[in-house]
């Protein structure tokens, strides 16, 4: 069964550093998403991306966040200057008819 | 905005017994989908079951079934013959039929007692 692949599975970064989380969506999917889950809390929507542009974003997705589809296969989430409160699990997802979540990247900001 | 409420932060069940996890939601839409996701300690999101709002028949996947009460906006998950591997966090989720964003509940932590 096709999968959404996220790398790395765990990333540790220093506060103030830039970090890029990577995702490879399912190849025939057209919509791409990022979600965030702070430890012990619910999963929250960050952003959706379609046709090479952001289609929807939440209030969490402020100017420190950006997304990009740099080539035909990758979908990335960049956090420009990480803060301690950015520590969370970040899930990528993609959809067309079905909707599939990746296995997540655990980001730890120290 | 749509809201999803899971009123049971924690539940426990004896192995081989049945347990029901509750979920309610609030929406003004008529076309939507409801989901239950399982999140084990690895924190991967695993789809357990989905229900289309236009379908009156409750969805079933092996030992997992739902009780979908559209008028009451209730969507509970029943796990029959509980197994140790069912222990996990369970999230109820809503997705509009016209949108792509998921709205998740706060989760129910299920413990299975041997």
Q: Could you explain the architecture of this structure?
A:
The complex is a heterodimer of chains A (110) and B (114). Chain A has no helices and eleven strands. Chain A has 110 residues and is an all-beta fold. In chain A, a hairpin with a 6-residue loop joins strand 4 (31-37) and strand 5 (44-50). Chain A starts with a strand and ends with a strand. The model of chain A has no long low-confidence stretch (mean pLDDT 93). By secondary structure, chain B is an all-beta fold. Chain B is built from no helices and twelve strands. In chain B, strands 2, 5, 6, 10, 11 and 12 form a six-stranded mixed sheet that branches. A four-stranded antiparallel sheet of chain B has the order 3-9-8-7, with no helix packed on it. In chain B, strands 1-4 form a two-stranded antiparallel sheet. Chain B is globular. The mean pLDDT of chain B is 94. Chains A and B meet through strand 4, strand 5 and strand 9 of A and strand 10 and strand 11 of B.
Percent in strands of chain A: over 45%
Mean pLDDT value of chain B:
94
Which structural class should the secondary elements of chain B be placed in?
mainly beta
Measured distance between first and last alpha carbons of chain A: 36 Å
Oligomer: heterodimer
Give Rg of chain B in angstroms: 14 Å
The total strand number of chain A stands at: 11
